[in-house]
């Protein structure tokens, strides 16, 4: 075997082993969770009223906040993708901040804001947020909108800005060009943005626990239930809830791949 | 009859690039080729005409109507970009029917027009195919069909054949010209290739560094270039430094023409096809004979400069010859 051929094989082997290490770790964690001996019904989240409430609330709030994140992410991503104006880089940095910040800090920030005069006015005249369901949606949205924006920006980056221009020369208004062409061409990317926002919201714990508390049958989510069960030593119950969360997230990923007509294998 | 398109002192700024006071008239049904090197502002001018860029000054009239600040949808232009910009996740037929779906300006029988465009451009074999699977030539025809479906008053083609293989370009240019004659649609065709321009143009408009340098029928531009840039861009290989003294044009010791221009130094230009090797003229020695697609090109060293002559046979290197320079074909340009 020549030296260059050996070098090529060694390069492929090292890169493959390193690349497979992380998926192997994830697969091992998931396998251990499924195979860990437990003495609890697999239908636990549906069997007990409090857990059933947490399960439904998790689904409802995460879908709601994912939709809100997309609503915010689409124009933000479009702005970051299309406009080259002074200050755009600083704006880009601001959109990155929630991703870089520890999630607990976001929870603290929300608590502090609603102690200020504007925050109190909003709570009095618009909607109460602290320790309430709207607060869960708000906290989840603040965390997940940054991810949605990032993916939306990437989606619009891959759509040539000239397409909208050509559409306008063919008779489209600005809105028609955006909706019929740019949104349509970016739809797979926007779907990914929705999914990422949803998974982020679905799994969020720290900022929600700080901002909304964990009140059974009121602000308790599946993620909070896992923490509560673990903190009182019920590892079996925590594990079942974890498996449910992992299974739901996995099912959504598979569904989205199917909607995007992407092969699983 | 009014002008189909009139541009008055149009200016625009794009970063460091500046389009400087471009004025141009295009007659109804005319095929105008906007010719110039890459980066001279041809695409910028086209984008200003279809409304995708805003000018900093000047005015644009289409069909006598001031459209300088009008929305692209209200200008009635059909724009075919250089890279076609077909809507990539759609089929060819979806792209074609796009303009017809919008109620903003489309009028008339959609199905008749669709059938006519499909037949004219031979689009039937791949109508239902996704545009991503089409070849370059097929994409070009779909993009053209899409623009024609919008019933434009002015057709704007930005380098329509540049992306095609060289073997296809001639044929596509002929088809474009036939289509334009049949539809009698005012067309502006942007390109940087002289052969391509000459194969389709009723009139040429040459641009350089954001300025319109010369417009006119091809023969006029080729035989009477406005300046040295136009002469060089239109492949005039014979650019000689001459001196005008008392109305006589002197190339070294030889007097080659007369002129009414003031005394001074100029550049004289004669196209190779007007020169011949004869029994009298300016003496020289053959440097080389090379084959071009259309003729033999013989280079002759005349001492003070070289002459390129479109010849009818191969000459021996070093052969003594005389270059006959018809006085009426000598054109003087200022630097």
Overall description:
The complex is a heterodimer of chains A (265) and B (335). Chain A is 79% helix and 0% strand. With 265 residues, chain A is mostly helical. In chain A, helix 3 packs across helix 10. The radius of gyration of chain A is 22 Å and the shape is globular. The mean pLDDT of chain A is 89. With 335 residues, chain B is an alpha+beta fold. Chain B folds into 2 domains: 5-230, Rossmann fold (3-Layer(aba) Sandwich), CATH 3.40.50.300; 238-333, no CATH class. The relative contact order of chain B is 0.12.
CATH class of the largest domain in chain B: Alpha Beta
Radius of gyration of chain A: 22 Å
Q: Under CATH, the topology of the largest domain in chain B is which?
A: Rossmann fold
The CATH architecture of the domain at 54-220 in chain A can be given as Orthogonal Bundle
Can you give the helix content of chain B as a percent range? 10-25%
The most extensive interface between chains reads: A-B, 16 and 27 residues
Task: Write down the CATH topology of the domain at 54-220 in chain A.
Answer: MetI-like fold
Rg result of chain B: 24 Å
**Low-confidence regions of chain A:** none
What percentage of amino acids of chain B are in beta strands? 25-35%
List the helices and strands and how they pair.
The complex is a heterodimer of chains A (265) and B (335).
Chain A: H1 3-35, H2 44-47, H3 49-82, H4 88-100, H5 103-113, H6 117-125, H7 133-157, H8 161-169, H9 174-185, H10 187-203, H11 206-212, H12 222-231, H13 235-259
Helix pairs in contact in A: 3-7, 3-10, 4-7, 5-11, 7-10, 7-11, 8-9, 10-13, 12-13
Chain B: E1 5-14, E2 17-26, E3 31-35, H1 42-50, E4 57-62, E5 65-66, E6 77-80, H2 92-96, H3 98-101, H4 110-120, H5 136-149, E7 154-158, H6 166-183, E8 186-191, H7 194-200, E9 203-208, E10 211-216, H8 218-223, H9 228-233, E11 239-245, E12 248-251, E13 254-258, E14 264-269, E15 276-278, E16 282-291, E17 296-301, E18 306-311, E19 320-324, E20 331-333
Parallel strand pairs in B: 3-8, 3-9, 6-7, 7-8
Antiparallel strand pairs in B: 1-2, 1-4, 4-5, 9-10, 11-12, 11-14, 12-13, 14-20, 15-19, 16-17, 16-19, 17-18
